[in-house]
Specification:
- Pfam families: PI-PLC_cat.
- This is PI-PLC X domain-containing protein At5g67130-like.
- The chain has about 375 residues and is α/β, with parallel strands linked by helices.
- The chain has ten helices and twelve strands.
- The strands form two sheets. Strands 3, 4, 5, 6, 7, 8, 9, 10, 11 and 12 form a ten-stranded mixed sheet that branches. Strands 1-2 form a two-stranded antiparallel ribbon.
- Helix 3 links the parallel strand 3 and strand 4.
C-alpha cells in the first residue's frame, strides 16, 4: 500500500473518530457541529453558513416566548416580535396560475411553520387579481400571472388555524396593500374566519399612548392586529392605517448602512413619539439567500442599537428579516431576545430578566 492510500485510510479513520466523538441524537448544543437536524437540541437545527463558520452547526430555529418566560401583563408596545418580510414569498410555493413564476422569494418556511417557530408579525403584499385578493411579489401596483403566489385567503386560513390552536397568542399582519375593490380586503378576512380575532380600530392609541395590556387583548380575543398602507381604508373599512400608529426605518439596501437608520419615506420621523410602535427592517433590496445568515446575526443586532438612538431611545417592537432562520448562531431569534431584554428589564437578553438568572451580569430593573 502506497503513501497516498495510507493517507486516505488515516484521514478516514480520523474522520470516523471525530464523528464518533461528536454529539448526536438531540444532544448537540448551539454551534456544535452536526450532521442532521436530529443531532441538535430542541429549538435548534443543523445549518451551514458559509460566511460564519465551516461545515454544519446547530443554530437556533425558534423564538423565546417572552410571555411564558415572564408574563403578559404589560402593554402590547412593551414587547418585541419577530417579523417575516414578504412572508408569503416562499421558496417552492406552487404556481396557482399555470405560469412559471418570475420573481424573488424571501422565506423558506410556510406560514404555519413561521408561526410555530415564533414569528408573530407577517408582512404581506395584497393585490386585486383574478377576481380575488392575491399575494404577489410584483411591481407598478399590478399583479401578474408570473408574479402571483396565491390567493390571500389560503395564507390567512393558516393564520386562523394558528390562532384557533393557540388561544394566548397574538399575530400582527402588515399589508403593503394594492387592493382597490370596495371591501375586498375586509371580505377576505371575513371569509378566512379571522374577524372573531380582530383588534378593533377604536382601541388603537393614536397619540403615542400605550396599547392595551397583552393579557386584556388575549382575554377579549383581540388577537389579530392588521395594518394597511392605504390611508382611506381606516375610514372605509376600519382597517388601521399603518403610519398612524407606527414608525419604520428604510427598507432594503438603504436601511443596511452601518451606523445609519433613516426613516422610510411613508413613515413619520423615527423620533415621532405620537406613534407608539417601532418597526426595524433589515434585509437587502434583492434577497440573496447565501448572505442572510450573516445579515441576520451581529449586523442585525448592531442595527437595532443604531435604530434605538435614531428612534429617540426606543427599542423596536418589530424586527423584519428575510429567511428568518438563517444565521451564524442565534440570529434573528437572539435579536428579538435582546429587544425583549431591553424592553422588559434593561438587560441584553430576556433570560437575564428572570430572577436568579445566570445568563449575564445584568441586574434586572
Amino acid at each position: 500500500m502506497g503513501p497516498y492510500q495510507n493517507w486516505i485510510l488515516i484521514t478516514a479513520f480520523a474522520l470516523f473518530l471525530s464523528l464518533a466523538a461528536a454529539c448526536s441524537n438531540g444532544e448537540c448544543r448551539l454551534l456544535d457541529e452536526c450532521l442532521s437536524d436530529g443531532d441538535c437540541e430542541a429549538g435548534l437545527y443543523c445549518f451551514s453558513c458559509g460566511q460564519g463558520f465551516s461545515g454544519s452547526r446547530c443554530v437556533r430555529s425558534t423564538i423565546t416566548d417572552q410571555f411564558k418566560l415572564l408574563n403578559n401583563s404589560l402593554p402590547f408596545n412593551k414587547y418585541a416580535f419577530l417579523t417575516t418580510h414578504n412572508a408569503y414569498a416562499i421558496d417552492g410555493y406552487p404556481s396557482h396560475t399555470g405560469v412559471p413564476r418570475v420573481t424573488f422569494t424571501n422565506q423558506e418556511d410556510n406560514i404555519t411553520q413561521q408561526l410555530n417557530n415564533g414569528v408573530r408579525a407577517l408582512m404581506l403584499d395584497t393585490y386585486d387579481f383574478d377576481g380575488d385578493v392575491w399575494c404577489c411579489h410584483s411591481f407598478g401596483g399590478k399583479c401578474h400571472d408570473y408574479t402571483a403566489f396565491g390567493p390571500a385567503i389560503d395564507l390567512l386560513k393558516e393564520v386562523e388555524a394558528f390562532l384557533s390552536a393557540n388561544p394566548s397568542e397574538i399575530v400582527t399582519i402588515i399589508l403593503e396593500d394594492y387592493v382597490q375593490a370596495p371591501n375586498g380586503l375586509t371580505n377576505v378576512f371575513v371569509d378566512a374566519g379571522l374577524m372573531k380575532y380582530w383588534f378593533p380600530l377604536s382601541n388603537m392609541p393614536k397619540n403615542g399612548e400605550d396599547w392595551p395590556l397583552v393579557s386584556d387583548m388575549v382575554a377579549n380575543n383581540h388577537r389579530l392586529l392588521v395594518f394597511t398602507s392605504i390611508q382611506s381604508k381606516e375610514a372605509s373599512e376600519e382597517i388601521a392605517y399603518q403610519w398612524n400608529y407606527m414608525v419604520e426605518n428604510q427598507y432594503g439596501d438603504g436601511g443596511m448602512h452601518a451606523g445609519s437608520c433613516p426613516n422610510r419615506a411613508e413613515s413619520a420621523p423615527l423620533t415621532d413619539k405620537r406613534k407608539s410602535l417601532v418597526l426595524v427592517n433589515y434585509f437587502g433590496s434583492v434577497p440573496v439567500k447565501e448572505m442572510t445568515c450573516e445579515n441576520n446575526s451581529g449586523a442585525l443586532i448592531n442595527m437595532l442599537q443604531t435604530c434605538y438612538g435614531a428612534a429617540a431611545n426606543r427599542w423596536a417592537n418589530f424586527v423584519a428579516v428575510d429567511y428568518y432562520k438563517r444565521s451564524e448562531g442565534g440570529g434573528a431569534f437572539q435579536a428579538v431576545d435582546t429587544l425583549n431584554g431591553k424592553l422588559l428589564c434593561g438587560c441584553d437578553d430576556i433570560h437575564a430578566c428572570v430572577p436568579g438568572s445566570t445568563s449575564g451580569p445584568c441586574t434586572p430593573l
